[in-house]
Design goal:
Elements (H helix, E strand, L loop, with lengths): L1 H18 L6 H39 L26 H6 L1
């Protein structure tokens, strides 16, 4: 009876070891540390820095003119010549037709 759970535990341990590349002990841990460090410095950290820079730029832009109008929604497409509902640039062209 005890040999069955030992065999199962050994099989699980073997599966986990093989799924991690077959390395055991210190070399396995060291390879995961190196891979994690590379992933952090190549992907995670640059994306965090980019997000932080964008937030700083947005904060500077907002602080420069607090009463500046900012369009919060996109204009609705309309099948006019101007392409926008609130655009009346070609009014004289329409009346001449």
């Amino acid at each position: 009876m005890t040999s069955s759970w030992r065999r199962t535990f050994g099989n699980v341990r073997s599966f986990v070891g093989n799924s991690m590349g077959g390395l055991r002990g210190g070399s396995n841990l060291a390879s995961w540390v190196v891979a994690g460090t590379l992933a952090y410095f190549l992907w995670v950290r640059p994306s965090q820095q980019l997000k932080k820079e964008q937030e700083e730029r947005a904060a500077l832009a907002a602080a420069s003119d607090p009463y500046k109008y900012v369009e919060k929604r996109k204009p609705i497409p309309d099948p006019q010549e101007t392409g926008l509902i609130y655009g009346n640039k070609n009014k004289e062209n329409k009346s001449g037709k």
